[in-house]
Amino acid sequence: MTLNNKTSFANKIGYWTSQEQYSMQDLLRFVVEAERSGFNDCMTSDHFHPWWHDGGYGNFTWVWMSAAAERTKKMRFLTGVTAAVYRYNPAIIAQAFASLDVLYPGRIGLGIGSGEAMNEVPVGFEWCPADIRLERTKEAIQIIKNLWKRSDASSTTPNKANQSIDKDGFVTFEGQYFKIKNARLYTPSQTKIPLYMAAVGEEATKTAAIFTDGLITVSTPDNSKKILDNFDKHARAHEKDPNTMDKIGKPKISYHKDYDEAFKSSGFWRATSLKNAFGLDISDPRELEEKAKREVSDEKLKESTIIVTSIEECIKPIEEYFKAGFTRIYMQSTSPNELEFIDEFSKKVLPHFEGTRN
């Protein structure tokens, strides 16, 4: 794959907002500036606890999304990701995102995943094995799609649940983990809400291909081939065209003219470089922080973050994502000065992929 026709990548680079790292007010300033500077899409994290205790935030993402959509004109918003395993009932997720779509038609997307202990255990749930979380996620997706009255709701795949939608749109679903009875969204979505799933492992990637509109993965270009090939294979096996489905990546970057400052700022995400970070049975950010300080070396942290002193140094890593087969990426900046990152990136990196700046 070549990138000679850069215009085709003009709107494939989105902006990431970290609900764990910044206040809600700061994130609103960032996203307004990002849209003004040329970004059209925003992905935003959805957690109860942050990955890091010192200086961390715990913003409620759905509330922030509504405020952010109101303050922007065309920016599209996607969660990265909402976990539908315990604390969020899938029917409530369906209701919330349908209502957001009524307020901001065509600008709302749902990214779904099997969650982390730091989001579920603090609110009273036991942390269950990965296979159970995946089964719960499958059931949740089916419920959400049925309540959205998606045309493919009853044909998303083989499943063991008893489900039905009657002539008036009332949904009944009886799965192993979730049950709803004669439920209907009386405020339905105005448009088809895109639904994506976060995955890295083989079974989760298969689930994303079968049940959703696309894949979200933290895998980097150099280790993504197996994941993307697996996704495409299972999509085709279920009569879906993988070429019409998004494969979304999330490069993490820290930019500052002083390398040491850029590296220091990346430390907030040290815990995400822990072995099996997303499956750890640790829910206390204080414990995550201490474990990461002990076990994640500076070299390992540098491997997980694109640390640059010139913003143009971002261009080649981004090209690698597209060459690997990703169709869209969201830039997760952990730069010391976020507004400076947005300004520099929009002036010197986006034009490389756009050809001309809007």
Task: Set out the fold topology.
Blueprint (H helix, E strand, L loop, with lengths): L12 E5 L6 H14 L3 E4 L16 H11 L4 E4 L2 E2 L6 H14 L4 E6 L3 H4 L9 H18 L14 E4 L5 E4 L4 E5 L11 E4 L3 H10 L2 E3 L8 H13 L8 E4 L2 E4 L3 H8 L18 H11 L2 H7 L1 E3 L6 H10 L3 E6 L4 H11 L1 H5 L4
Parallel strand pairs: 1-2, 1-14, 2-3, 3-5, 4-5, 5-9, 9-10, 10-11, 11-14, 12-13, 12-14
Antiparallel strand pairs: 6-7, 7-8
Helix pairs in contact: 1-2, 1-12, 3-5, 5-6, 6-7
Q: Describe it for me?
A:
The chain has helices at 24-37, 61-71, 90-103, 117-120, 130-147, 202-211, 225-237, 259-266, 285-295, 298-304, 315-324, 338-348, 350-354; strands at residues 13-17, 41-44, 76-79, 82-83, 108-113, 162-165, 171-174, 179-183, 195-198, 214-216, 246-249, 252-255, 306-308, 328-333. With 358 residues, the protein is α/β, with parallel strands linked by helices. β9, α6 and β10 form a beta-alpha-beta unit. α1 runs parallel beside α12 (338-348), α3 (90-103) packs across α5 and α6 packs across α7. The longest helix is centred in the middle third of the chain and has 18 residues, at 130-147. The model is unreliable at 151-158 (pLDDT under 50).
